[in-house]
Amino acid sequence: MSLNPYDINPDFMKPDHINSDHMNSYGVIIISPVGDIPSWITAVIAERVKEIFRFETRVSVLLEDIFFAYDRDRDQYYSTRILEELATRMPEDCIKLLAVTQEDLFIPILTHVYGEAQLGGRTSIISLSRLMEYPNSGSREKSRCRIVKEAVHELGHTFDLRHCEDEHCMMHYCRKLEDVDHKSDRFCRYCKIFLSDSIKSLGV
Ligand SMILES: [Zn+2]
Ligand SMILES: [Zn+2]
Protein backbone atom coordinates (compact mmCIF):
# COMPACT_ATOMS: atom_id res chain seq x y z
CA MET A 1 0.00 0.00 0.00
CA SER A 2 1.32 3.46 -0.82
CA LEU A 3 -0.96 5.75 1.13
CA ASN A 4 0.59 9.16 1.22
CA PRO A 5 -0.35 10.94 4.46
CA TYR A 6 0.03 14.32 2.74
CA ASP A 7 -2.96 13.39 0.56
CA ILE A 8 -5.10 12.81 3.62
CA ASN A 9 -4.40 15.95 5.56
CA PRO A 10 -2.24 18.84 4.30
CA ASP A 11 -1.66 19.95 7.90
CA PHE A 12 0.87 17.16 8.14
CA MET A 13 3.18 19.27 6.00
CA LYS A 14 3.61 21.80 8.76
CA PRO A 15 7.13 21.28 10.07
CA ASP A 16 6.13 21.92 13.68
CA HIS A 17 3.43 19.30 13.81
CA ILE A 18 5.18 17.30 16.50
CA ASN A 19 4.73 18.92 19.88
CA SER A 20 3.99 17.75 23.38
CA ASP A 21 0.24 17.27 22.94
CA HIS A 22 0.15 16.12 19.37
CA MET A 23 -0.94 12.57 18.61
CA ASN A 24 0.40 11.22 15.33
CA SER A 25 -2.76 10.28 13.49
CA TYR A 26 -1.40 8.09 10.73
CA GLY A 27 -0.86 4.45 11.60
CA VAL A 28 -0.97 2.54 14.85
CA ILE A 29 1.63 0.70 16.90
CA ILE A 30 0.45 -2.85 17.49
CA ILE A 31 1.24 -4.71 20.70
CA SER A 32 0.95 -8.37 19.77
CA PRO A 33 0.82 -11.08 22.46
CA VAL A 34 2.09 -14.49 21.38
CA GLY A 35 0.60 -17.27 23.51
CA ASP A 36 -0.74 -16.73 26.97
CA ILE A 37 0.23 -13.20 28.00
CA PRO A 38 -1.62 -11.59 30.94
CA SER A 39 -3.81 -8.77 29.64
CA TRP A 40 -2.52 -6.30 32.25
CA ILE A 41 0.92 -6.60 30.63
CA THR A 42 -0.20 -5.76 27.10
CA ALA A 43 -2.36 -2.97 28.59
CA VAL A 44 0.50 -1.26 30.46
CA ILE A 45 2.82 -1.58 27.45
CA ALA A 46 0.17 -0.12 25.13
CA GLU A 47 -0.44 2.80 27.48
CA ARG A 48 3.23 3.72 27.91
CA VAL A 49 4.04 3.26 24.21
CA LYS A 50 1.21 5.64 23.33
CA GLU A 51 2.56 8.26 25.77
CA ILE A 52 6.15 7.99 24.54
CA PHE A 53 5.77 7.63 20.78
CA ARG A 54 2.45 9.48 20.43
CA PHE A 55 0.86 6.94 18.13
CA GLU A 56 -2.38 5.17 18.85
CA THR A 57 -1.81 1.60 20.03
CA ARG A 58 -3.80 -1.58 19.52
CA VAL A 59 -3.46 -5.03 21.07
CA SER A 60 -3.82 -7.65 18.35
CA VAL A 61 -2.78 -11.31 17.96
CA LEU A 62 -0.79 -11.92 14.76
CA LEU A 63 1.02 -15.17 15.63
CA GLU A 64 -0.55 -18.11 17.47
CA ASP A 65 2.80 -19.66 18.35
CA ILE A 66 6.52 -19.45 17.58
CA PHE A 67 7.39 -23.15 17.31
CA PHE A 68 8.87 -22.49 13.87
CA ALA A 69 11.66 -20.52 15.59
CA TYR A 70 12.40 -23.16 18.25
CA ASP A 71 16.00 -24.35 18.53
CA ARG A 72 16.07 -27.81 20.06
CA ASP A 73 19.75 -27.70 21.04
CA ARG A 74 19.43 -24.43 22.91
CA ASP A 75 15.84 -24.91 24.09
CA GLN A 76 15.22 -21.29 23.12
CA TYR A 77 13.55 -19.37 20.30
CA TYR A 78 15.47 -17.55 17.58
CA SER A 79 14.16 -13.98 17.71
CA THR A 80 15.41 -12.86 14.28
CA ARG A 81 13.38 -15.61 12.64
CA ILE A 82 10.27 -14.46 14.52
CA LEU A 83 10.78 -10.85 13.38
CA GLU A 84 10.97 -12.03 9.76
CA GLU A 85 7.68 -13.89 10.13
CA LEU A 86 5.96 -10.97 11.85
CA ALA A 87 7.05 -8.64 9.03
CA THR A 88 4.93 -10.70 6.61
CA ARG A 89 1.83 -10.32 8.80
CA MET A 90 1.73 -6.57 9.39
CA PRO A 91 -1.73 -5.05 8.92
CA GLU A 92 -1.78 -2.08 6.53
CA ASP A 93 -2.40 0.51 9.22
CA CYS A 94 0.41 -0.83 11.42
CA ILE A 95 3.39 1.49 11.50
CA LYS A 96 5.40 -0.48 14.09
CA LEU A 97 4.86 -3.75 15.87
CA LEU A 98 5.98 -5.15 19.20
CA ALA A 99 5.38 -8.84 19.89
CA VAL A 100 5.41 -10.11 23.48
CA THR A 101 6.28 -13.71 24.35
CA GLN A 102 6.90 -15.72 27.51
CA GLU A 103 9.51 -17.86 25.73
CA ASP A 104 13.25 -17.31 26.14
CA LEU A 105 14.80 -15.70 23.06
CA PHE A 106 18.30 -15.84 21.60
CA ILE A 107 20.41 -14.67 18.70
CA PRO A 108 23.36 -16.90 17.79
CA ILE A 109 26.11 -14.67 19.24
CA LEU A 110 24.44 -14.26 22.65
CA THR A 111 23.23 -16.63 25.35
CA HIS A 112 19.89 -14.83 25.47
CA VAL A 113 18.24 -11.51 24.63
CA TYR A 114 15.50 -9.59 26.45
CA GLY A 115 14.27 -8.59 23.02
CA GLU A 116 15.23 -7.80 19.44
CA ALA A 117 14.17 -5.25 16.83
CA GLN A 118 14.72 -4.49 13.17
CA LEU A 119 16.78 -1.30 13.37
CA GLY A 120 14.83 1.36 11.48
CA GLY A 121 12.37 -1.36 10.45
CA ARG A 122 8.88 -2.18 11.64
CA THR A 123 9.00 -5.22 13.88
CA SER A 124 10.29 -5.90 17.37
CA ILE A 125 9.80 -8.44 20.13
CA ILE A 126 10.41 -8.79 23.85
CA SER A 127 10.52 -11.86 26.06
CA LEU A 128 9.06 -11.84 29.56
CA SER A 129 11.07 -14.94 30.41
CA ARG A 130 13.86 -13.15 32.29
CA LEU A 131 12.20 -9.77 32.94
CA MET A 132 9.20 -11.13 34.83
CA GLU A 133 9.78 -12.76 38.21
CA TYR A 134 6.28 -12.01 39.52
CA PRO A 135 4.30 -13.85 40.83
CA ASN A 136 6.98 -16.43 41.78
CA SER A 137 9.26 -13.81 43.30
CA GLY A 138 9.65 -10.06 43.20
CA SER A 139 6.86 -7.54 42.98
CA ARG A 140 4.45 -6.98 40.13
CA GLU A 141 5.58 -3.34 40.03
CA LYS A 142 9.22 -4.32 39.51
CA SER A 143 8.28 -6.68 36.67
CA ARG A 144 6.03 -4.01 35.15
CA CYS A 145 8.88 -1.46 35.15
CA ARG A 146 11.33 -3.84 33.48
CA ILE A 147 8.86 -4.97 30.83
CA VAL A 148 7.83 -1.43 29.90
CA LYS A 149 11.46 -0.24 29.69
CA GLU A 150 12.52 -3.08 27.41
CA ALA A 151 9.35 -2.77 25.29
CA VAL A 152 10.02 0.92 24.66
CA HIS A 153 13.73 0.16 24.11
CA GLU A 154 12.98 -2.34 21.32
CA LEU A 155 10.39 -0.10 19.69
CA GLY A 156 12.95 2.71 19.92
CA HIS A 157 15.23 0.65 17.67
CA THR A 158 12.47 0.42 15.04
CA PHE A 159 12.53 4.24 15.01
CA ASP A 160 16.26 3.93 14.28
CA LEU A 161 17.45 4.78 17.78
CA ARG A 162 20.80 3.17 18.60
CA HIS A 163 22.22 2.18 21.96
CA CYS A 164 22.91 5.13 24.21
CA GLU A 165 25.87 5.52 26.57
CA ASP A 166 23.72 7.28 29.18
CA GLU A 167 23.08 4.54 31.73
CA HIS A 168 19.81 6.19 32.78
CA CYS A 169 18.40 6.39 29.24
CA MET A 170 15.94 3.73 28.08
CA MET A 171 18.11 3.15 24.99
CA HIS A 172 21.00 2.03 27.19
CA TYR A 173 21.95 -1.57 26.44
CA CYS A 174 21.49 -3.79 29.49
CA ARG A 175 23.17 -7.15 29.93
CA LYS A 176 21.81 -7.75 33.41
CA LEU A 177 18.52 -7.14 35.20
CA GLU A 178 20.30 -4.82 37.63
CA ASP A 179 21.13 -2.59 34.65
CA VAL A 180 17.49 -2.62 33.55
CA ASP A 181 16.40 -1.70 37.07
CA HIS A 182 19.04 1.04 37.19
CA LYS A 183 17.98 2.87 34.05
CA SER A 184 15.01 5.23 34.14
CA ASP A 185 11.79 4.92 32.17
CA ARG A 186 12.71 7.91 29.98
CA PHE A 187 14.83 8.72 26.96
CA CYS A 188 17.74 11.11 27.44
CA ARG A 189 17.42 14.46 25.68
CA TYR A 190 19.56 13.32 22.73
CA CYS A 191 17.46 10.21 22.13
CA LYS A 192 14.31 12.34 22.44
CA ILE A 193 15.54 14.65 19.70
CA PHE A 194 16.57 11.70 17.55
CA LEU A 195 13.13 10.11 18.02
CA SER A 196 11.36 13.33 17.12
CA ASP A 197 13.46 13.65 13.93
CA SER A 198 12.84 10.01 13.09
CA ILE A 199 9.06 10.42 13.43
CA LYS A 200 9.16 13.58 11.31
CA SER A 201 11.07 11.70 8.59
CA LEU A 202 8.20 9.21 8.41
CA GLY A 203 6.06 12.06 7.12
CA VAL A 204 3.30 11.40 9.61
ZN1 LIG B 1 18.93 -2.61 22.17
ZN1 LIG C 1 19.76 8.21 25.22
Structure, described:
The chain has 204 residues and is of the alpha/beta class. The chain has a single domain, classed as Collagenase (Catalytic Domain), CATH 3.40.390. The protein is 32% helix and 19% strand. The chain is built from six helices and eight strands. The protein has helices at residues 5-8, 39-53, 79-87, 140-158, 177-182, 189-201, and strands spanning 24-33, 55-59, 70-71, 76-78, 94-101, 105-106, 115-117, 123-127. The strands form two sheets. The chain has a five-stranded mixed sheet with strand order 2-1-5-8-7, sandwiched between helices. A three-stranded mixed sheet has the order 3-4-6. A hairpin with a 4-residue loop joins β3 (70-71) and β4. α2 packs across α4 (140-158). The longest helix has 19 residues, at 140-158. The protein is globular and about 45 Å long. Mean pLDDT is 89; it is low at 1-20.
- Report Rg: 17 Å
> Could you say what the CATH topology is called?
Collagenase (Catalytic Domain)
Strand content: 15-25%
Distance between the termini: 15 Å
| Sequence of secondary-structure elements | HEHEEEHEEEEHHH
CATH superfamily: Collagenase (Catalytic Domain)
**Architecture, CATH level 2?**
3-Layer(aba) Sandwich
Number of domains: 1
